[in-house]
Amino acid sequence: MENFSLILAIVVVTALAFDFTNGFHDTANAMATTISTGAMKPKAAVAMSAVLNLVGAFLSIEVANTISKGLVDESGIQPEVIFAALVGAILWNLLTWLVGLPSSSSHALMGGLIGATIASAGMGAVHGDVLVTKVLIPAIAAPLVAGLAAMLATRLTYRLGRNANGEAAKKGYRSGQIASAGLVSLAHGTNDAQKTMGIITLALVTGGAIAPDSDPPVWVILSAGLAIALGTYLGGWRIIRTMGKGLTDLQPQQGFAAQTSAATVILASSHLGFSLSTTHSVSGSVMGAGLGRKGGVVRWSTATRMFAAWGLTLPAAALVAAIAEYVTSFGTWGTAFVAVFLIASSAAIWVVSRREVVDHTNVNDTDDTNVDDTNDTEETTDVMSTAIAAVTPPPPGHVEEPDTEPATRTATV
Fold first, then answer.
1. 60 with 193: CB under 8 angstroms?
2. Does position 392 have pLDDT exceeding 50, yes or no?
3. Which of 293 and 315 is assigned the larger pLDDT?
4. In 3D, which of 44, 283, 39 has the Cα closest to residue 178?
5. What's the CA gap between 6 and 317, in Å, rounded?
6. Any idea what DSSP says for residue 215?
7. Which helix (DSSP H) or strand (DSSP E) does residue 68 occupy?
8. How confident is the model at residue 410 (pLDDT cuts 50, 70, 90)?
9. Average of pLDDT values for 225-251?
């Protein structure tokens, strides 16, 4: 470890900072539906998710190897490139957290790495086949597969439980939600925590601290697991509100189906080494569960904003990372400038977020911006009810009270 330079130390610390933002940005993936349906109290939910994220970090290293060995050419980049990539990913995570949009931390990291690598070593340093097969295709397939599975599971669940006792069934499904939420948290640790492990391992290789093609050292696995667990415990309450209430209103049956479907997709992808977006998977399953219930509604205005964020994540993070890489190429002062800019921007975003605090005490409060479709429906229903009442004849035997108002007015005059 004698080659552990100052820039390498900065990269490791910045990578763990990204892992922390990944934790609170993606807490909603595991716990939004559990919290919104009342299956668990908010603080207990994020505490359980944090512990299982840490456990999941030790279960596999396939995704870490995809990033550290497969996506870019190790020999063509320097630690400064990794630093620039992390700057792009962190800033995108914080901006989307501020507005409550569940975008992909994974794709922010991938976009940052690709943008910084291209700016430093050119297009040839990015392995296009790995990018397509293990990043882009899963990005499209994951929400579709998870959504379809959740829709079918929801319909099957309601059909099987149509004769069950209402309250007893709800209690059973809430227990099932807790178990499935734990499975999603475990899956999140096996996939997202590994991305930071992979990026730190790549930095250690480029900095000469470990040999090429090395697996993540134990201290890297432990530190990445702890960072994402801490971020998860603090809770990304803004995104939890969007996922739990903004996309659709979920009942316990739907929450159980959505989380089970998402966890299955994420765990399968982790086993295959796909750098999957857990956000895409869980969002797709939540929408699928919303469509699977008879009378269920997906708020497409919120979903459209979310889709736009998904499409912008890779290019936006890549652009910021490429600019950061250009500045760091000027030497030590350039790297210092980028570091100061990152800290100042992060602090500014936090200050802005304090204007409207969202935490465990109000995460289930309905936000007007997220329920436009519901309000519209309620207003339409009220108007229609009034109109129907006006033209409906009175029931038999009903004697209508005479309208005495005109006579009163005449007497007054």
1. no
2. no
3. 315
4. 39
5. 25
6. P
7. none
8. very low
9. 75
Tokens 């189906």, residue located: 257
b/e 308-346 (16+ beta carbons within 10 angstroms → b): ebbebbbebbbbbbbbbbebbeeeeebbeebbeebeeeb
Of the listed ranges 306-320, 349-363, 368-382, the least confidently predicted one is 368-382
The encoded tokens of residue 169 equal 């069934």
Q: What tokens were used for 24?
A: 């609170």
pLDDT in tens, 273-283: 666 677 788 88
Which phi and psi angles does 248 have, rounded to 5°?
-165, 165
- Residue 219: both structure tokens together: 């201290």
Q: Which pLDDT tens digit goes with each residue over 253-303?
A: 787 888 888 888 887 877 776 666 777 888 888 888 888 887 777 788 878
Q: How is residue 118 written in tokens?
A: 């291209």
Read off the pTM: 0.74
For residue 72, give the DSSP letter. B
Q: In this structure, which amino acid lies at residue 105?
A: S
Structure letter (DSSP) for residue 39: S
Average pLDDT over all residues of the chain: 77
Compute the distance between CA of residue 413 and CA of residue 409 in angstroms, rounded to an integer.
6
Per the model's pLDDT, the better-predicted residue between 77 and 313 turns out to be: 313
For every residue of 239-301, DSSP letters joined together read HHHIIIIIS-PPPHHHHHHHHHHHHHHHHHHHHHT----HHHHHHHHHHHHHHHSTT----HH
pLDDT > 90 in the chain, percent: 16
CA angle 23, 24, 30 (to 5 degrees): 75
Host H or E run for residue 226: helix 218-234
CA–CA distances in Å: residue 177 to residues 45, 66, 184, 393: 11, 31, 10, 48
Distances (CA, A) of 201 to 8, 59, 65, 212, 234: 11, 17, 9, 9, 26
CB 27 within 8 A of CB 46: yes
Rg (CA), the chain: 25
